[in-house]
Amino acid sequence: MPLLRRARAVAVSVVLLASGSTVASATAAAQPDPFTAPIASCVQPGPTLRYLVVFDQGTSQPIAEAQIAAACGTSTVYYPQISVAVATSPDPTFGRRMGADRAYSAQAEAISKLNGAVTRKKVDETGMGKASRGGAVDRTVEQWDMDLIRAAEAHAINNGSRDVVVGVLDSGIDPSHPDLVGALDPGLSAGCATSGRADSSVAAWSPTTSAHGTHVAGTIAAADDGRGTTGVAPGVRIASVKVVDDDGYIYPEYAVCGFMWAAVHGMTITNNSYFIDPWVFTCQNQVGQRVVYEAVRRAVDYSSDSGVLTVAAAGNSATDLSKPGRDSQSPTNAEELRPRALDNTCLVLPAQLRSVVAVSSVGADKVKTGYSSYGLGAVDLTAPGGDRKQVPDDAVDGCVLSTVPAGYDYSCGTSMATPHVSGVAALLASVHPEATAPQLSRMLNDQSETLPCPADYDLNGTGAQDAYCMGYSEYNGFYGHGLVDALAAVTR
């Protein structure tokens, strides 16, 4: 799924959330207050849906849970640190009772827009069951991406510290893969992709329908043991934080759960090779979407304030993120998402949040891949994500080789570029254990290899530029501050 595209439908009828909030007046004093309506007035036609609920900062858990119950809902989990809850309700009026500016169901959005269509899962090009089995064979010669960022040279100096933990917020990590078993910390792993509440059982954080998380994990920390592949920082620990459900979706309540789990459990870095459903662009000025934006922003900020560096993929829609727009169609039904009207309140989450390191993708020639999103001020760094049109050697695929359940496979995308940055950040954190998350971010910028804008970006040979790179050599819209450099990370 390089960066998980939308493609799903569910044949269920859902009553849409109200677009406005009710204002009480003196003449309406005789009407029941929806926030204190007796439970007996609740209806249960189903389906039971999940909601994110945002409260005023400082709201206590008893008050939050009481308001949810009075609105005909049940609290699944409450995060008092950020005053955000995940709730469920079978009552279609729950959103209206709580208020459209406080409660929103991304699940309902996806279902209602695709009512009656054929059910499909989101596309995942890193598929389960198609892996090549490497056995004891050393496949590092196929890892052109590691050569590009000088990872092997870095390993001669520093492999990374066991004190550093990278949380892989993704589709789960294979706990039995020989290249990962030494790095994976089951005690710090959890699944968020069922209810939005963390579940630390092995079944909850193991992969089920997607190899994506295992592929990402291998790029970060696959063992340097002369077999299979080797990660950027093979000496660090990784944790599986599952935020992708079995249909391939990352609903906002899953991501909030993942960020909070990483913060509470003291992780150093989180890798986020996804964008949050049900849109590519989440708009702060749209009813419902602003609930999602606020909840995710609070969770990321809390994670950052707790010392966690958040690294995220810029996306595979080849979009200029400096000119954001609303989704042009239902994002859960789109293979060809592009922004519609320009709207500078619309952002890709989590990549475009203030404290997040956003990553674009390059191929073997160190040129931005055609699919990678970009944008001056939106992209911080770049890393190898691969392109099958660019084959660095006759015997090597142009995509990135890494671990998947039962073996190894190639995949391309900004999803694949992002863990290279997380791995280099892990090396930096190993060398500088006292560094804060903002300091690690600045170090990433400082150690990167400058990549100027290409003089000609005509990928298809049509005579027209496929995208326009704005900025200057040291900082531009294609590459941000440049290409990460593992060797520089352990020597400067």
Describe the secondary-structure layout:
Blueprint: E1 49-54, H1 61-70, E2 74-79, E3 84-89, H2 94-98, E4 103-104, H3 106-113, H4 144-148, H5 151-155, E5 165-170, E6 190-191, H6 202-205, H7 212-221, E7 237-242, H8 252-264, E8 269-272, E9 282-283, H9 289-305, E10 309-313, E11 325-327, E12 339-342, E13 346-347, E14 356-362, E15 381-384, E16 400-404, E17 407-411, H10 414-431, H11 437-447, E18 471-472, E19 475-476, H12 486-491
Parallel strand pairs: 5-7, 5-8, 6-7, 8-10, 10-14, 14-15
Antiparallel strand pairs: 1-3, 1-4, 2-3, 9-13, 11-12, 16-17, 18-19
Helix pairs in contact: 7-10, 8-9, 10-11
Describe this structure in words.
With 492 residues, this protein is α/β, with parallel strands linked by helices. The chain folds into 2 domains: 68 residues, 2-Layer Sandwich (Alpha-Beta Plaits); 340 residues, 3-Layer(aba) Sandwich (Rossmann fold). It is 23% helix and 16% strand. It contains 12 helices and 19 strands. The strands form 6 sheets. Strands 6-7-5-8-10-14-15 form a 7-stranded parallel sheet, sandwiched between helices. The chain has a 4-stranded antiparallel sheet with strand order 2-3-1-4, sandwiched between helices. A two-stranded antiparallel sheet has the order 9-13. A hairpin with a 4-residue loop joins strand 2 and strand 3. It starts with 48 loop residues before the first strand and ends with a helix. The relative contact order is 0.15. The N terminus is likely disordered.
